[in-house]
Structures are given as structure tokens and as C-alpha cells.
Amino acid sequence: MDNIYTIIFLALAVFIFLRLRSVLGQRTGAERPPYDRRDVLQGSARDKVVPVPGNVIDHAPAATPTEVPPPIDKWKGVAEPGSDLALGLNAVVRLDSSFDLPHFLAGAKSAYEMIVLAFAAGDRRTLSDLLSSEVYEGFEHAIRDREQRGEKVERKFDGIDKTELVGAEVRGKMAHLTVRFVSQIISVTRDKSGTAVDGSPDKVADVTDVWTFARDAASRDPNWKLVGTESGH
pTM of the full predicted structure? Predict the structure, then answer.
């Protein structure tokens, strides 16, 4: 009898095992692992990124650098790109990296007014500081002749309309810049008796001068000197 009951229990165990197998199935190694609620929440946070104000760490690949725009023409309003004037200015900058065009033009305008007035007044000291030796010699000769005739010059500016750079070049270590000045000047020359022999104290004359200034880039002296003059048109 014991053998019969043992056989019955074995048969029943086999039957139960087969039923469970058919319901649960078999593990093949390809099954999805059981999920964890924490994994689901973390996955949602990664998959649904919501931008917020403040510092954001961007894990995206770095963007390709954009092409650097070309530099703005440094001589805009003064010289056309590629012109002789622009090339001359570039040469001046290569010779003297501290060169500043607006500063130079402002100084040239002041020097022009000072030289014109100093020449009229016979102020040799001021002229010697602002002129090259060759130009000073010509100015001093004209002043001496005027003094010998007993003439005096009265001159004042009514205005300077234009200070325009028209030339630039480098000769060795010397930078040369040419400027056109358009101004209105009241000028009268009187003889020994005080009679006006040239010009008028009541008339404003339009004057155009083209002057060239030069500076030795190897010198510690930062000042430019007048090295050439001519009347403009």
C-alpha cells in the first residue's frame, strides 16, 4: 500500500509541476528584467528634459565654431580699402604700432593754427618747435624780410572747416602724413605807417593749405614736425 501512495504522490507532483510550467513559462535569458519604480522615475527625468532659468549643463556635443567675421575696416571714412592712402596708413602702423589717426589729425589741426598765427606774429621760438629745419629756414627768411620793410601782419582764424588726410607713406624710418586744411582767415598786412598794404581787416578769406608732417619712428620724441607746405585748390 505504501508503494501505491508513493506513486500517487509522485504523479501528482509531476502534474502540478507541468501545470505551473505551462502558466509561468520558461526563462530564456531574453526576458525584460523586473522594473524598479526608482528606475522608471529616473528614466522619465532623463527622457523628458524641461529647461529652467539659470545655469544649465548642456551635455550635447559642442557646436562647431562659427566663422569669425572679417575685421571692420580701420580706415573707414578716411581711405578706401586697398587705396594708396590705406596702404600708406598700414605702413605707418607697421612702423609705429602706437599711431592713432584721430589723435594725429586733432594735433595736426592745432599745429596748423599755431603755425599760421606764429608766422604772422614773427614768433620764431614756436615755429622752431613745430617745423623741420628746412621749413623753418624758409619761414624765418620771410619774417626777416617783412621786418626789414617794417611791415606787420594781423591774422586770426574765423574757422577751420576741414582737416583731411590726403597722403601717407613711409621713407626709411620716417612716417609722412599729408593733410589738407580748409579754413577761413582774416588777414591784413600793414606798413610802417599802419596802412593796409595787403588783405583786409574786415574780409574773411577762404584758404586751402596742403601740409606734410613727418616723424622719426626711432625717436623718443612723439611730436610730428611740418616738413612741407603748398597751397591747395
Answer: 0.68
* Residues contacting residue 211 through CB under 8 Å, at least 6 positions apart: 108, 112, 178, 179, 181, 226, 228, 229, 230
**One-letter amino acid for residue 129 of the chain:** D
Domains of the chain are: 84-231 (3.10.450.240)
The closest of 106, 113, 110 to 158, measured between CA atoms, is 113
Q: Classify 107 as helix, strand or coil.
A: helix
Local structure of 108: helix, strand or coil: helix
Longest dimension (CA), the chain: 168
CA-to-CA separations, 142 to 1, 122, 155, 193, 206, in angstroms, rounded: 155, 9, 16, 20, 22
Q: Which three cell numbers stand for residue 133?
A: 629745419
What pLDDT digit, counting tens, does each position of 72-89 carry? 578 999 999 999 999 999
